[in-house]
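Tokens for chain A. Residues wanted.
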């Protein structure tokens, strides 16, 4: 499946916008390869993208599924800096880490890295993100390849952070359990907490 998924993924626009119903272009490519998704679920790829997928897979081209959205020009996000409150919600929503900033500080979109996914727009509580036409030069294969890599790196970082948090919690629990085992008072408190947790 992976070779086929690789070839399918190479034809997708790498916006990582999730309009296809999957968490990014790669999961969508894998679903197509497994026969679980149709080739007409990517609005950013549009009719041209569907035609490429149809040719690759030897399937008839289908019209874009309106349930996934409509084909339109790709847009570039821009933060209106004077209105930004520094909440970081757009940073958390961006699938390719194309927004820089920190809590309570103004954010900015790294224009060269923006894929036009538009996921930051609904995330912004003060509507300080506007969309502008994406330069044609940014719609090439090099930008798509870079976006794929940024998405992969972000997913790996988020998974690593979750694993680190879980390991830290497990270590704390083990330390508390070890202390309780050697301290009768802590052991009694742990039993009491466990009992309360079991009580409806």
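Reply:
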């Amino acid at each position: 499946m992976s070779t086929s998924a690789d070839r399918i993924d190479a034809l997708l626009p790498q916006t990582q916008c999730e309009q296809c119903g999957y968490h990014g272009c790669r999961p969508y490519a894998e679903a197509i390869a497994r026969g679980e998704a149709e080739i007409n679920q990517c609005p950013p790829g549009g009719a041209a993208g569907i035609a490429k997928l149809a040719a690759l897979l030897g399937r008839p081209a289908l019209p874009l599924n309106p349930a996934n959205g409509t084909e339109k020009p790709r847009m570039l996000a821009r933060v209106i800096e004077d209105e930004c409150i520094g909440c970081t919600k757009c940073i958390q929503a961006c699938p390719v880490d194309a927004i820089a900033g920190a809590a309570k500080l103004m954010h900015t979109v790294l224009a060269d890295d923006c894929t036009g996914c538009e996921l930051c727009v609904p995330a912004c509580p003060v509507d300080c993100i506007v969309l502008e036409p994406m330069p044609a030069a940014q719609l090439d294969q090099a930008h798509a390849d870079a976006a794929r890599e940024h998405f992969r790196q972000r997913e790996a970082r988020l998974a690593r952070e979750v694993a680190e948090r879980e390991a830290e919690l497990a270590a704390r629990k083990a330390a508390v359990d070890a202390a309780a085992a050697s301290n009768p008072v802590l052991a009694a408190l742990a039993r009491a907490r466990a009992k309360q947790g079991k009580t409806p």
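Residues 100 and 157 are 16 Å apart (CA to CA). The first helix runs from residue 2 to 11.
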